[in-house]
Amino acid sequence: MTAFSQTSPLREDKRTYKRLQINHRRNKEQDHTELLDAASARFDYAACRDVPWNPEPFSLLWGTPFWDQASAAERVKLNQLYWVAYYADIISAEIATIYFNQTSAAALFGLEDFRLVCDTLDLESSQERAHINAFKTVGEAVEAELFGERVFTYEMRGPFAETVIFTDTNRVREKAKRMLLRTFGVLSAQNAFIGCQYFLIRGLRTLLGKIVQHQLSGFHQELVRDGAPDDLDAISPIPSQISYFHFQDESYHFNSSTIISHDVLKSLPTPSRFERWVMNETVKGAQKDLRPFTVVGDGLNWHGPRTYEVVHKVLTSKVFGLSSAEALAFMRKTYCEENEGLHRAHQTHVTAIDSYRKYLDDVDYLTAHNRDMTLAADIDIPRVLAANQKAFAAFEARA
User: Fold this and answer.
1) pLDDT for res 311
2) Which of 29, 99, 235, 239 is deepest in the core (most CB within 10 A)?
3) Rounded to an integer, what distance in angstroms lies between the CA atom of residue 47 and that of residue 180?
4) Residues 6 or more apart in contact with residue 172 via CB below 8 angstroms
5) Partner residues linked to 191 by β-bridges
6) 3-state secondary structure 303-330
7) Within 13 Å, how many C-alpha atoms sit on residue 132's CB side?
């Protein structure tokens, strides 16, 4: 089904068009691609291996029994590993973003006055490639040094892979999701409404990132608050700089997601029954991805049991030196009992749910179930603990 009609040329909506122009112009003027490329080219783990890269609570296993007894040096490593893990998770989402930016632009360029929107998406896709390169450069170098193998990172992948690296899935569900993503790509390239409303999903999925990345970005800003010396690397680790540069770019990306999905939408006809159904099903799928939270790290939509193997590998590595039995004992307390880290992750999840609801409140074609994010909100600490406890017994038996 092809739909390229619109109720009026986009330029006639002067307020929206001006907002698009301002956002695009400022993003071009403040583009951080060269800074990201230069920073990743300079990265040398030896130069920043002994200092944290994030605010302390953004550390792997923060607030857990293992964190409580960890030495200062071990806490620094957990802090750095959070950076590696968090941005490894971001990479897959940004690969998908590049693809869907282009499929959506294919549909939107068939409308009057939509070149500005498409130029905006071209710039953002180029920036995403720089982000991915920076995250991969740092993450792979750190894991090679600490573990001699990949732990959270992975080889480059296509746009149809899971955008959450530790999710509750299996081969059948993975195959089904790849098919759905391919179908959405075809639809978004041929249907202006679906292409436009991809940015509702993009904006929705960015909201949790804004909560976390604002704090990661602030770490760099705090380090340089009194004025950066000639050698910025001397006071702000390169990964912290990358967090800051990335957040600046993403702020403009979120603005364009919001303008396109909420305001540009007004230049399109009322969606058909089929178009409403497609987008409601898509939001429902996004809810599933946004539902989990984990004690492994604040702001990660990870399914706890899927992280058992990788956390066990980290704890028994030369970096932390635990025996398998010692690691399992800490993991049992971490995953199966309440602790400060789990409560912090839950509170961030609650804050994010509130942001999702506000973002979707005026989207009238969505069902009440989707506007209220019912599925994403249907989880709490007792349910997380119950799922972790059930799965941990089986993992412990075979570890």
Assistant:
1) 98
2) 239
3) 44
4) none
5) 3
6) CHHHHHHHHHHHHCCCCCCCCHHHHHHH
7) 19
148, amino acid identity: G
| pLDDT, tens digit, 9 for 90 and up, residues 210-233 | 999 999 999 999 998 866 667 888
pTM over 0.70? The answer is yes
* Identity of the residue numbered 89: D
Q: Which residue has the tokens 């939270």?
A: 293
Phi then psi for residue 191, to 5 deg, are -130, 115
Among residues 124, 83, 101, 155, the alpha carbon closest in space to that of 251 is found at 124
Q: What residue ranges do the domains of the chain occupy?
A: 11-224+231-398
Give SS3 for 157. Answer: coil
Residue closest to 345 by CA, chosen among 297, 289, 290, 288? 297
3-state helix, strand, coil in the chain (%, to 5): 70, 0, 30
Residue 5 has pLDDT above 80, yes or no: no
Burial class (CB in 10 A: 0-12, 13-18, 19+), 224: middle
| Cα distances (angstroms) measured from residue 258 to each of 110, 173, 262 | 21, 30, 6
Q: Could you tell me the CA-to-CA distances from 23 to 28, 76, 94, 253, 268 in Å, in that order?
A: 9, 37, 20, 9, 21
Per-residue pLDDT of 186-206, as tens digits, reads: 999 999 999 999 999 999 999
Mention every residue, 6+ apart, whose C-beta is less than 8 A from residue 379.
291, 292, 293, 349
Topology (CATH level 3) of domain 11-224+231-398 = Ribonucleotide Reductase, subunit A (1.10.620)
- Counting every residue written for the chain, the total comes to 399
CA-wise closest residue to 90 among 219, 293, 246, 286: 246
- The Cα-based distances of 1 to 107, 191, 196, 365 in angstroms read 12, 7, 15, 19
